[in-house]
Amino acid sequence: MRLIISDVLDLPIAEDGECRVIYNNGNIHHCIGCFGCWGKTPGRCVIKDGYENMGELMSRCSELILISRCTYGGFSPFVKNVLDRTISYASPHFEMRKGEMHHKRRYENVIGLTAYFYGENITENEKQTATDIVSANSINYDGKVNEVLFFNSADQVKEALA
Amino acid sequence: MNIALINASPKATGSASKVLLEDLAGLINEDDTVKDFAINKPSIAEHEVGELCKCDAWVFAFPLYVDGIPSHLLSCLCRMEQMSISNRQIYVYAIVNCGFYEGKQCHNALAIMENWCDKTGFIWGMGIGYGGGGALASMGNIPLGRGPKRSLGQAYRILANAILTDTQTENYYTSVSLPEFLYRQAAEYSWKQMIKANGGRYADLNKKI
């Protein structure tokens, strides 16, 4: 399955059993750092706002596509909020990978990560940070980076996806 | 000099960020004034930003979230960028703690803070990336510079000097002063305690849905 997390509404993409798009419904709550998704209801966030199953959805995807305004070199508040709510995708246990500590896998699927960043005045430093963050995300998911792309506007992203 | 210590953990109580800021406050001279602030929700009121702008330096402390900064703090940073803040001659510092052992893993979060300063016109001072922050919440009574806080004491000497002299310096990365295997064992023990306290079994930590 392709899982798309987007702060751009009305993407020219049809949702079906092979593609799921996570949009902002205006009700998302931020992660409160309780670790309930690891130590209380393992695999699922304890905040019931419609975004509690993000870790589970990630376990079913082979490609994760992030569509986000580039915000200081990172994701926008909504996309980052969803990502903050996905930590149950991994297990709380630690292991060493590439000489660094990371969380062990909970699931077997390998995620390929693609990021579409957009914004009018993305600086070179921001592009570098964004590229580094996607790479770090892929290491934490024990997955891989497919592509990191930059656009001048959300409309350009839509055109690229059409 | 007025120094704002901004606890930007989403946790209202019991955060590692609180311990980090309390230890830093102990290094600030009596001649200087420390003002405590908290950002634990995705919104910030104009009057709070007004109070922040009366300070000469802002020190944020927050946990690393998915290789970046927590979304609630990001929302507040975006809001502050939109506000008409006249005083931009403020030095910004950040202390990021992560559950991983290597403080270096906080470097992207610090880069975001520096990029935010570039975008808004605030002056980036320096950042600290602190690994093994998960252990800090239970270390409130351990003196800075001693035992597991030995390395934090070294980092804070650099940070406090930068803050008190209005200077910019390189980011500094360090880890809790515990052997990596011991830190991992402590983390495993805490997960075991948590799942049992919630009526689960140790094996449930790896549960697939």
Description:
The complex is a heterodimer of chains A (162) and B (209). Chain A has 162 residues and is of the alpha/beta class. Chain A has one domain (2-127, 134-161): Rossmann fold. Helix content of chain A is 27%, strand content 28%. Chain A has helices at residues 36-39, 54-59, 77-84, 124-140, 154-161, and strands at 2-6, 19-22, 63-69, 90-97, 100-105, 112-118, 144-151. In chain A, the strands form 2 sheets. Chain A has a 5-stranded parallel beta sheet with strand order 2-1-3-6-7. In chain A, strands 4-5 form a two-stranded antiparallel sheet. The radius of gyration of chain A is 15 Å and the shape is globular. The model of chain A has no long low-confidence stretch (mean pLDDT 97). Chain B is α/β, with parallel strands linked by helices. Chain B folds into 2 domains: 2-178, Rossmann fold, CATH 3.40.50; 179-209. Chain B has helices at 16-25, 46-52, 71-82, 107-120, 150-164, 180-197, and strands at residues 2-7, 33-38, 57-63, 91-98, 123-131, 172-175. Chain B has a 6-stranded parallel beta sheet with strand order 2-1-3-4-5-6, with helices on both faces. In chain B, strand 1, helix 1 (16-25) and strand 2 (33-38) form a beta-alpha-beta unit. Chain B is globular and about 55 Å long. The interface between A and B is large, with 50 and 51 residues.
